[in-house]
Amino acid sequence: MKVSDLRGILNYVPSYREKVFVIALDGAVLAGDNISNLILDIAVLWSLRIRTVLVHGAGQQIKDLSAQTATPISNYDGSGITDPATLSVALTAANRLTHEIMEGLTSVDMRCIYPNAIIAHPVGIIDGIDQQHTGKVERVDEDLLRRVLAEDIVPVIPPLGFDGAGRTFRVNSDAVALAVARALRAVKLIFVTANDKLTRGGEVIQHMSVDEAAAYQKSCPDEIPPELRSKVAHGIGACRDGIDRVHIVNGKVDEALLSEVFLNEGIGTMIYANQYQSIRRAMKKDVQSIQNLIKRAVQSQEILPRTRAMILQQLNDYYVFEVDRNVLGCVALHPDAEGRRAEVACLYVSASHENQGIGRRLLAYVEKVAREAGIEELFALSTQTFAFFEQKGGFSAVSPDILPAKRREQWEKSGRNSRVLAKDLRSQPATMPV
Ligand SMILES: CC(C)(COP(=O)(O)OP(=O)(O)OC[C@H]1O[C@@H](n2cnc3c(N)ncnc32)[C@H](O)[C@@H]1OP(=O)(O)O)[C@@H](O)C(=O)NCCC(=O)NCCS
User: Fold this and answer.
1) How much distance in Å is there from the Cα of 285 to the middle of ligand 1?
2) Which atom of ligand 1 is nearest to the CA of 380?
3) CATH code at 5-272
4) For ligand 1, is residue 348 a contact (CB within 6 Å)?
5) Ligand 1 atom with least separation from CA of 15
6) Which has fewest Cβ within 10 Å: 57, 109, 268, 414?
7) Is 345 near ligand 1, meaning CB less than 6 Å away?
8) CATH code 3.40.630.30 region(s) in the chain
9) How far is CA 431 from CA 16, 348, 361, 363, 367, in A?
10) Average pLDDT in the 317-325 region?
């Protein structure tokens, strides 16, 4: 990461401040040399007031300890039967690892704690076989974790849970991470693994929607490395449960965690929840709502006035953001006759709902629609929102000469002196909603 990237980071920091990230550290990555760098990355996140909860696995350590002590174990990833010998090895290996993580955090002046926040119950008998000490997360003590986080203390959670009688169960660390993220309504769940990005047909996958991830998991299960299958499955579950972003990142790469969180093109694969479900194409019944919505912006000359007939004529180009049948935002995408370029226009979010990411979602949505339609370039004209297009949408100021002849003529005649912005979709990465 370069010093110049710090400026880019500032775009993200306000929206992440005081939010919870759950970081699920794989045992395999903690066995490597990069653990101290990962701890430093976590310290940086805390310094930006991002509340991180650490959940760790211990599969690798359990495997190693069983080999060292010649203790035969029934399974090492917490997914099969846990007999008493396996539980004993798992307790020693997992607790040692928790301790090592806490040593690392202490060395960078961070306060940390191992809370008994995972309440588990036995998995029980499956296909007639008693799974013994293998547990399932029953509930997360959300109150305890919130109090710890509020005191600036990092919770470090091993793949172990307690039941009401004080018995210990081994639980799958990915399931623990998902349960914690869900309980704390985390904005991100980050699986730090020892694997590179996911691929499909040899192509790396930077990001995919939860629906794409589910289709990928179903259609090409063999392309997912065995170590990542549980991450993908739990990642899909997380997105469906309202966690906006799940990242799978190779923790062996230097600065992996920070790069993934703060750079547009992260180094891992991101699965994102469907943030577009409130957006739909406008219908005839919406015309009045659109006109009412933009009235204020028209008066303040932020948006050009549009008559009912004008909107109806291009109704297919309009999209609305609707919650409980109230239209709270709108945007239009007007493609040119050749279908090569398109204008983004009439972007507006109700003043009562500003700063909730709706504007960025609308902008990212029409960009996605444009890309899917093979549009190569977007442009927009703006008098007062050009900085939004530049900073949040990746547009750049360009000369009005790039405008199609007819649009250029209108631009001149209007006397509004709007700035012209453009985005080349062939060379620029896709904008992601917050
Ligand atoms: C611009 C607009 C669409 C943003 O919608 P929104 O839902 O509030 O935006 P988001 O919540 O996605 O993003 C908010 C971020 O954008 C920034 N932002 C909002 N308006 C901005 C502007 N005019 N210039 C620069 N940044 C702006 C906010 O400061 C905030 O930044 P932060 O996340 O770093 O704190 C909305 O303010 C609006 O409708 N403006 C008036 C209409 C207009 O001028 N439309 C353009 C005509 S093409």
Assistant:
1) 26
2) 48
3) 3.40.1160.10
4) yes
5) 33
6) 109
7) yes
8) 279-424
9) 18, 18, 9, 8, 7
10) 90
Cα dihedral value 182, 211, 378, 425, nearest 10: 100
Topology of the domain covering 279-424 = Aminopeptidase (3.40.630)
3-state SS string for the chain: CCCCHHHHHHHHHHHHCCCEEEEEECHHHHCCCCHHHHHHHHHHHHHCCCEEEEEECCHHHHHHHHHHCCCCCCCCCCCCCECHHHHHHHHHHHHHHHHHHHHHHHHCCCEEECCCCEEEEECCEECCEECECEEEEEEECHHHHHHHHHCCEEEEECCEEECCCCCEEECCHHHHHHHHHHHCCCCEEEEEECCCCCEECCEECCEEEHHHHHHHHHHCHHHCCHHHHHHHHHHHHHHHCCCCEEEEEECCCCCHHHHHHHCCCCCCEEEECCCCCCEEECCHHHHHHHHHHHHHHHHCCCCCCCCHHHHHHCHHHEEEEEECCEEEEEEEEEECCCCCEEEEEEEEECHHHCCCCHHHHHHHHHHHHHHHCCCCEEEEEECCCHHHHHHHHCCEEECHHHCCHHHHHHHHHHCCCCEEEEEECCCCCCCCCC
Taking the C-alpha atoms of residue 196 and residue 186, their distance in angstroms, rounded to an integer, is 24
How distant is the alpha carbon of residue 90 from its chain centre?
Answer: 31
**Does residue 77 or residue 102 have the better pLDDT?**
102
Residues 6+ apart with CB under 8 A from 385: 302, 347
Distance set, CA 155 to CA 16, 24, 147 (Å): 18, 12, 10
**Distance from residue 235's CA to the centre of ligand 1 (Å):** 30
**Each residue of 41-77: pLDDT tens digit?**
999 999 999 999 999 999 999 999 999 998 888 777 7
Indicate which atom in ligand 1 lies nearest the CA of residue 385: 23
CATH 3.40.1160.10 range(s) for the chain read 5-272
The whole-model pTM stands at 0.71
Ligand 1 atom closest to the CA of 386, numbered from 1:
24
10 pLDDT higher than 80: no
Q: Is the pLDDT of residue 8 over 70?
A: no
Place of tokens 């004080």: 166
Distance 335 CA to ligand 1 centre (A): 23
